[in-house]
TrEMBL record, chain A:
Source taxon at top rank: Bacteria
Domain Tr-type G residues, every copy: 9-223
Name of this chain's protein: sulfate adenylyltransferase
This protein's record includes keyword Transcription regulation: no
Length: 446, 298
């Protein structure tokens, strides 16, 4: 067996979530500080600013709250991205705001996360915003969830309080589709540092891993061999030189699965079939490329392919359709009304679309839906039917986080209106209903 | 199959970003100073479009306060890849009175006007920069596709949500988008990548003997523009640069790291950030970078 040290360090993308003031930014600051990821001049600046604020200990949230207005108000407004590494892994960390008004920034941070750390304040327990964020995380398919019961120092490191909160939250997460036993709860103090990087002497009753131990060891990537191949064509590379006569390659990033030289593929939406003649990169040819790698495909037959087309495994291609169900997380102050004309960006293609129907709004507190709400407001989640001017090859988001995702864009001013997820993801989160659709089970767990 | 390691993932992400911009914008340009980040940026662009040439020109905002080695490297690199270089010259703006030299002689803050002027007159709609989120905590808040209004300003409270890897580059006439393919790279990632890819850099990044003088705790190169003033004494030391910028406010560090392995060892062990160690312009205030970005800086 190879030891972990021999393997190249891999990358884990994680996001924080939780209600305002539960300690997310302080926890991120603590992770950076205790992993010695903060350099002396940065730390000096934080010390100076903390003294100016009249604090006796450094306020580690200042390491992440980088905007002037954030420091003035003492809250996080926008996502901050931070980076640190241990010998086992590199981490890309998105610290998101807890304030309801900025939920869309939480959606931003969570959309690429492989793991989320959801915080609660041990004194307050599970709040409305905690439940809302958990629903957003489940909807976006964040595969791993950690509950950090923070400020445990303020409840005298009481095991009973921890257990009650952990139980209440785990039940909620299970109802949202996280498999039983998949959510780890950890008692932490971001301020003092208990169980973040270093094990706490104050919680002898807790025997699980510290937060960092868990982050370093949790499995992240599903085996790409079990997922059908998807490749949105971003750009057609053409050149004609002595070395590369009539070169014509299709450039893109493998969105899902793997591609092997000789594989039979289909080009969508046209539906033409051919095989992969070569997988090119600047560093030479590859025999196989897996999800996450940028490559250029050379196909055996000359087919008319442009940016926006999708190359997919011929044996397991997605449906091509100009009408599909979707869940929208609405991110704009302008409310959504049924019949709205918008742009949909899916993969590398942008098409005109109409939000034909607004079926339901999700109540993330009761885990139930409100039928035909009439409009969808900022930060609300709804179930819609989308009609597009041109057919799109879409996967269900619960099956594929890349090819099941799309943006809803305002055609007039170009702003991003919503995060779109193909399929009936919402109804799967809904537990408060009498009948269950057998095929709509979302499973954000591994 | 080779499992993707962290550098492979960062590389593929950057290549994906280059190709998105090539597919969606009419007139992109790459900011190229000859510094290590912009050199890595160009290397990634070459990889993204290989075997075709990079389909964008380069733009250098030239403060006129350069070390010879950097300009020589810039011109050599442009020539090697057969690219077009647009130079926006701070000196020209000072000469014809559109800009005024600052009392401290520092020209980094003066770059914004020539940059925006060049973007407007060339109708550039996407501007690639080598900015990294780990450089500074205001940068840590910036999107990979960062919309600028027609004054080139960044409005941090009105950033678009950036979801998955679906970038929204829509903009109105006169607006443009700054694009940061190295957003998720750290300084150490950049150096490891330079080592792995064997990327050529200006010689000033490696330890060498140089005549320097001390100002504000930094070692500055003696030269016609930068000083020394009468009360500053020149001495010869073994130094290297960690960043490339305006010579009057970008300092060198004392170092014996003469090759890439030594530099990586040094950066890994460093207790100072690269900007904290070498950039006077970022020490101005708590929010120096945020303020300059709001005004349209890189
Ligand atoms: N006693 C104690 N205080 C804490 C702890 N963690 C955070 N705090 C304090 O709680 C307050 C809020 O912390 P932040 O880290 O800014 O909270 P946040 O969750 O990032 O807030 P938003 O980003 O605005 O949603 C600060 O005063 C922290 O010092 C902890 O473990 N124990
Ligand atoms: Mg915060």
């Amino acid at each position: 067996m190879t030891t972990l040290r021999d393997l190249p360090p891999d990358l884990l993308r994680l996001a924080t979530a939780g209600s305002v003031d539960d300690g997310k930014s302080t926890l991120v600051g603590r992770l950076l500080y205790d992993t010695k990821s903060v350099l002396a001049d940065t730390l000096d600046a934080v010390h100076r600013a903390s003294v100016d604020k009249g604090l006796s200990t450094p306020d580690l949230s200042l390491l992440v709250d980088g905007l002037r207005s954030e420091r003035e108000q003492g809250i996080t407004i926008d996502v901050a991205y931070r980076y640190f590494a241990t010998p086992k892994r590199s981490f890309v960390l998105a610290d998101t705001p807890g304030h309801v008004q900025y939920t869309r920034n939480t959606v931003t941070g969570a959309s690429t996360a492989q793991l989320a750390v959801l915080l609660v304040d041990a004194r307050k327990g599970v709040l409305e915003q905690t439940r809302r964020h958990a629903a957003v995380l489940a909807l976006l398919g964040v595969p791993q969830l950690v509950l950090a019961v923070n400020k445990i120092d303020l409840v005298d490191y009481d095991e009973g309080i921890f257990e009650v909160i952990a139980k209440e939250f785990t039940d909620h997460a299970t109802a949202l589709g996280y498999p039983i036993g998949s959510v780890l709860s950890i008692p932490v103090s971001a301020l003092v540092g208990d169980n973040v990087v270093d094990r706490s002497a104050h919680t002898p009753w807790y025997t699980g891993p510290t937060l960092l131990e868990h982050l370093e060891n949790v499995p992240v990537e599903p085996d790409p061999h079990h997922v059908p191949f998807r490749f949105p064509v971003q750009y057609v590379i053409r050149t004609n030189t002595a070395e590369h006569t009539d070169y014509r390659g299709y450039a893109g990033l493998v969105a899902a699965g793997t591609v092997t030289k000789g594989d039979e593929i289909v080009v969508l939406p046209a539906g033409l079939r051919t095989t992969v003649a070569r997988i090119d990169t600047h560093d030479g040819e590859l025999d196989e490329a897996e999800a996450g790698r940028s490559v250029t495909l050379i196909l055996a037959d000359e087919i008319d392919i442009t940016r926006g087309d999708l190359i997919a495994a011929a044996v397991d291609a997605p449906a091509v359709t100009d009408e599909f169900d979707a869940t929208l997380a609405w991110l704009s102050e302008k409310a959504l009304k049924p019949g709205a004309r918008v742009l949909v960006k899916h993969g590398a293609s942008t098409v005109q679309a109409i939000v034909a129907d607004l079926h339901a709004r999700f109540d993330e507190q009761k885990l139930s839906t409100v039928a035909t709400p009439g409009a969808l407001q900022l930060n609300e989640i709804g179930q819609v039917t989308i009609r597009t001017a041109e057919p799109l090859p879409v996967d269900d988001y619960s099956v594929n986080r890349r090819t099941g995702a799309f943006l809803v864009i305002d055609a007039a001013d170009g702003s991003t209106l919503a995060a779109g997820l193909v399929g009936a993801g919402l109804s799967a989160l809904e537990t408060d209903r009498s009948t269950t659709d057998g095929d709509a089970v979302v499973s954000p767990g591994p | 199959m080779n499992k993707l390691d962290a550098l492979d993932r960062l590389e593929s992400e950057a290549i994906h970003i280059f190709r998105e911009v090539a597919g969606e914008f009419d007139r992109p340009v790459i900011l190229f100073s000859g510094g290590k980040d912009s050199t890595v940026l160009l290397h990634l662009a070459v990889k993204a479009f290989w075997p075709a040439p990079v389909p964008f020109p380069l733009l250098h905002v030239d403060t006129g306060h350069n070390l010879d080695e950097v300009i020589e490297f810039r011109d050599r690199t442009v020539e090697r890849y057969g690219l077009r270089l647009v130079v926006a010259s701070v000196q020209d703006f000072i000469d014809d009175g559109r800009l005024e030299e600052r009392p401290d002689g520092t020209r980094n803050p003066l770059q914004t006007v020539p940059l925006l002027d060049s973007i407007t007159s060339n109708k550039f709609d996407a501007v690639f920069g080598g900015g990294r989120r780990d450089e500074e905590r205001a940068r840590a808040k910036e999107r990979i596709f960062s919309l600028r209004n027609s004054f080139g300003q960044w409005e941090p409270r009105r950033q678009r949500p950036e979801l998955w890897n679906l970038y929204n580059g829509r903009h109105r006439a006169g607006e443009h988008v700054r694009v940061f393919p190295l957003s998720n790279w750290t300084e150490l990632d950049v150096w490891r990548y330079i080592q792995r890819e064997n990327i050529d850099l200006p010689s000033i990044y490696y330890a060498h003997r140089r005549e320097v003088f001390q100002r504000d705790g930094m070692w500055l190169t003696a030269g016609p523009w930068f000083g020394p003033n009468a009360d500053e004494t020149v001495q010869e030391l073994t130094i290297r640069y960690r960043t490339v910028g305006d010579g009057s406010c970008t300092g060198a560090i004392q170092s014996d790291a003469a090759d890439i392995e030594a530099v990586i060892a040094e950066v890994s062990a460093s207790r100072l950030t690269e900007r904290g160690a070498t950039r006077a312009d970022d020490r101005l205030s708590e929010a120096a970078m945020e303020d300059r970005k709001r005004e349209g800086y890189f």
